[in-house]
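ok so for the tutorial part 2 we go from a plain amino acid sequence to predicted structure tokens. step 1 is just haveing the sequence, like this:
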Amino acid sequence: MTDNTPAAEIDPASEEDVFEQKAVRLAKRERLLTERVDAAGGPYPVAVPMTDTIPALRARFAELAAGDETGVTASVAGRVVFSRNTGKLCFASLQSGDGSRIQAMVSLAEVGEESLQAWKELVDLGDHVSVTGQVISSRRGELSIMVTRWQIAAKALLPLPNLHSELSEESRVRSRFLDLIVRDQARETVLARAKVNASLRATFTDHEFIEVETPMLQVQHGGAAARPFVTTSNAFDAELYLRIAPELFLKRAVVGGIDRVFEINRNFRNEGADSTHSPEFAMLEAYQAYSDYHGIADLTQELIQKAAIAVAGSTTVTWADGTEYDLGGQWDRISMYASLSDAAGRTITPETALADLQALAAEVGVEVPEKVATHGKLVEELWEHFVKGDLSRPTFVMDFPLDTSPLVREHRTIPGVVEKWDLYVRGFELATGYSELVDPVIQRERFVEQAKLAARGDDEAMRVDEEFLRALEHGMPPTGGMGMGIDRLMMAITGLGIRETILFPLVK
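step 2 — the prediction. this is what the tokens look like for a chain of 508 residues:
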């Protein structure tokens, strides 16, 4: 049996067929090993001839007319994704990593009978093959290599999935390597993410920010309200935490004089996973000395709009389902308390009694556990119930309750709230920004209040961080700070779910 069936005809669900094909391919591998001299190194050579890439040839000869010859000899390599053997002439489509393809034409006249027969018997779909020959355009106008020499670069022991049927989301996530081979969107998402990260760094460079790296293993978790992953260091004989945020270390950098600092790296939160949350995710945090939450909001809008342009060429992006979404213009800024009051049909302020908020929550079916039912927690949960779903355009939601924001400066004119915003795009929270709390005395008081919540059973409450407080006591300038999930930024630009924007997401 030879395996030159077009990938479209392979049923990936047929375990018996896969088992049979693997056995055939293993036999071919053994043959290549026994014929090492003729096979130029067996099924997995260290190197193969390669003078050009497939996309480079396609760009160079984009205007080649049907039937034309170039006189140019090139060696390229790619994965076989289509194969058709017709007597004295065999055709194969070779695909590069970016999805570009070129046709390989293996003819009796060019390679001889023995080589042609070896191609028919040894080359399968999924194999990596190097071919050398003249670059031509076929009679049908397809850019091709008229092969004079060929070599298997890597033997695939398992068949490709059906190239004309969508892999299920679960299959795409669990076998991303196959997803990248067979689906354009998967490759485009990887490229888009690279463009987003490059754009973010370029914008920060334009604003004279410095990129740093802070610890992922920490002796004390902090910088966000979240449950950490706990591990143990054998060398230090100590319990450590995977970081939930880089905030407290980046602020130390600001204290040390790095006035404009950012980091793009991984965070870990031991919480649920859904369409907008992943236990491991990429996070951007940035801090700008002598700025505030208004200045950092302006910067965040610029970062996102330039990232959209880098991917889509415009601030109007097209999502995977074809929907267009406008990220351009000046984004709205609304008050949390005012927007909640308007939507709920009653006035809610920082002075509203806890009992009144609990009564409203019960009335509309918003459940907040008693042990964490503070004024601020109820206000935020009620806001999500009444307002969040009606936001369509990108919107900064400003001025949060004091008791849920222990690292944020109190509002300069409104008692009981802090200078914090959350940015909502596509109905989910994309970023958050603060006028940072820099007074070490007040910060200690906030940490103590958080410790009391932790003692009452709040797993997300922060602990007193003495080292961070010591840094603040050396003087931190007025600062604006922000944090944004890179995976969620990709969601906003592509319209995909979070597991699609992460190359290799965590799965059970």
